[in-house]
Amino acid sequence: MRAATFTLALLIASAPAGATDADKGKVQFGIAGQDCITCHPQENNTAAIGPSLCGVMGRKAAGHMRYPTYSAALKVSGITWTRDRLDKFLTSPLANVRGTRMGFAGIADKTERENVIAYLERETGGELCLWDRLTPP
Ligand code: HEC
Fold first, then answer.
1. Does domain 17-134 have CATH number 3.40.930.10?
2. Residue of minimum CA distance from atom 40 in ligand 1
3. Which is the most buried residue in 15, 17, 29, 131, by most CB within 10 A?
């Protein structure tokens, strides 16, 4: 048992830091109180309270073609989603983009924000696009 734990610890320690962060971010995206997935559709969420985050990194805010109900505030914000810009937004969405419809208090912990952003970065053209692929326009 102890040997197995030790081996696991070694495996975790030797995983590339980026991948580990994105994996943690994936957990935070889905559970652990952040619950992005409640509003941002992936494969099994068609309620689509928020836009799909497919292709979000490097894109202009309010830019997903198939989300018709962006707030005026986000549309005129002039934001392009980079790591830094997302970090500010996710700290406190309602304070950062006044008038946004994203009713989410924010993520206070910087490491947690960085992990979620690492996940968004890794999957911007990957599993975040599952919903888009499953429901053709
Ligand atoms: C209560 C529902 C809800 C939750 C929870 C939520 N969001 Fe959102 N999100 C929205 C809505 C609605 C919008 C559109 C905002 C607007 O138009 O002002 C949005 C917009 C966004 C955008 C901008 C998308 C674009 O196309 O410009 C990003 C990025 C984003 N959310 C990331 C996240 C992340 C990451 C989490 C989890 C940490 C999260 N959201 C949690 C509802 C939510």
1. no
2. 36
3. 29
